[in-house]
Predict the 3D structure of the following.
Amino acid sequence: MAAPVRIIFLGGLGEIGRNCMAIEQGDRLLLIDCGLMFPDADMHGIDLVLPDFTYLRDNAHRIEACVATHGHEDHVGGLQFLLRELSFPIYGSPVTLGLARNRIQEAGLLGKTELIPVVDNERRRIGPFDVEFIPVTHSVPFAHAIALHTPQGVILHSGDFKIDLTPVDDRRTDLARLGALAAGDGIRLLMLDSTNAEERGSAPSERSVGVVLRQLFAEHKTERIITASFASHIHRVQQIAEAAIDAGRVVATLGRSMINNVRMARDLGIIKLPDHAFVNIEEIDNYPPEKVCVISTGSQGEPMAALSLLARGDNKFVKIGPKDLVIFSSHAIPGNESNVNRVIDGLLRAGADVVHSGIADVHATGHAQAEDLKMYLSITEPEWFVPIHGEYHHMVANTRHARTMGVPDSRIVLCEDGDVIEITDNGIELAGRVPAGMLYVDGIVGDVGQGVLRDRKVLAEEGVVVVVVTVDIDAGRVLVGPEIITRGWVYAPEAEDLIDEGVATVAKAVEKALKAGTRDVDALEKEVRRAAGKFVSERTKRRPMIVPIVMET
């Protein structure tokens, strides 16, 4: 019997982001990706969401390395946080490592890892793991699918991919190699990107965006053009820059990540454009507005990103006005729609003209759609199938594609974060669960926990009622108060009668407790919370946070 292989899903199943899994072979673990997720609107004050690292901390001595499929934040953004606690090498393409390196270096953690570059179609031994890096086309250059050659056969992780037959760099998803793997020993398990599984048809080529961009540059010859896209979307940045230069404009980058990534891409020879066409953002006032193109971060409406600062009039380099055209060359990530709309509104109020994907085809997805996924399944012919990378409804849609392409129901395993599957000679089955909650990052505070998040939710939705009372413990009587202070519950100047009634109710409860012999401050605070909470709920049908403060003399 061949040795079993286990897969531990730590993030990315049932959500967009936090992509992270561990492959267990013998007594060693290989990580595939370690990403982050941007918070939902109800995650008040949260900056980032990470996978739960409990399992990795508990098994730190077993981690061989991390293999990064590509350089997007939802796949490598968590590494800088994990490396604060652990140390391990990272494998990936030079672009992938370059994007990861920027964040790791900012955190001062380069000493905790070794960045080891790989080339397309390289097959490398990493401890006991036999890893093959298969080229795929995505919205960031030099992305890879990962083929693991294991005692239980080939395990194929699709990575994020699309089927683009005319990519900007002519580097296509290597369907021939996938077919060769299928025709050889076969693919025991396929784990397939589900992001666009509900989108019909095939994903459009990235080159189609370049055509639209050139048209917009031709139509707006008299305006300064400001574009916004993901800083990691190097090919999109390249197409914007090419359109600008061909239109006789200079190009300036705005936003730290955009500046860093463009510099890296030029150093690696991915963006091959003349040096004289690029200028520092400080120099754009030396050129007529119609001869300038600014490529900015902030396409997702991030509050402190360059484009958001522009919309608020707070950017020190660029001031938005009626002679500006702003192009959002991206789609809003689910959950970011309100932020993006807020930025668009700010730009329009400043007098700028705005073009986004709802107006023109200025964006092309980097993920395979329904027909692409079926083609992938047809080529790979997997024995077993697990959908990954997507919200639950995306993964369910992907299972339907698998059935359509001949994978029997009995060989489709629908997993969620925390699930562990084991691959043996007899097949694949669920083999338990590991901790897989969300780790919330709030500025420099780090993980604030579910309790803090619940409190913030209550404060945001229901408000707070603070009740202060001073008692003479020895005499068993109230000296001062109670006093009720409220924020976000009722407007105090217009609710004096209600607050007075609440004061009387709490006072009665405290006096009753004191007469009954209660002398413990904690017990009195519980009585205050109970009485105030019952009163507030009954009179206003609200449940604000009740903060009792009992002071003793």
In short: The chain has a mean pLDDT of 89.
